[in-house]
Design a protein that fits this description.
Distance between the termini: 15 Å
Radius of gyration: 14 Å
CATH class of one domain: Alpha Beta
Pfam families: EthD
Largest sheet: 4 strands, antiparallel
CATH topology of one domain: Alpha-Beta Plaits
Shape: globular
Helix content: 25-40%
Number of helices: 3
Strand order of the largest sheet: 2-3-1-4
Strand content: 25-35%
InterPro entries: Dimeric_a/b-barrel, EthD_dom
CATH architecture of one domain: 2-Layer Sandwich
Protein name: EthD family reductase
Length: 106
């Protein structure tokens, strides 16, 4: 499996951000071709460190499926909404990264 992770910093309006994310952004991202799994969480840091406000994980069968999704019209729509959403709700930062996921306990 190959995973894309997106971390969002705290928005200026958490309730508005969460509503937009749930009602607009998730349906757009759910249209990505090859998407196998999509999770989102509001993490809590341990030991006093800061945690991202929201972490989304998009799972694909392999890197080729993820690359195809990245080039799709659905991703263009999703990316445009992410940009608009982070501006509208004054999200201080958004970090994206990808990687091969391996099971270490099998």
């Amino acid at each position: 499996m190959h995973r894309m992770t997106i971390q969002y910093a705290a928005p200026s309006d958490p309730e508005g951000f969460d509503a937009h994310y749930r009602d607009v952004h998730v349906p757009l991202a759910s249209r990505l071709p090859g998407l196998r799994r999509f999770t989102a969480s509001h993490p809590r840091a341990l030991g006093g460190a800061d945690a991202p406000y929201l972490v989304a994980e998009l799972w694909f069968s392999d890197v080729d499926a993820m690359k195809a999704a990245l080039k799709s019209p659905a991703m263009a729509d999703t990316a445009a909404d992410a940009q608009a959403m982070t501006e509208k709700f004054e999200v201080a930062g958004m970090t994206m990264f990808t990687g091969l996921v391996t099971d270490v306990l099998a």
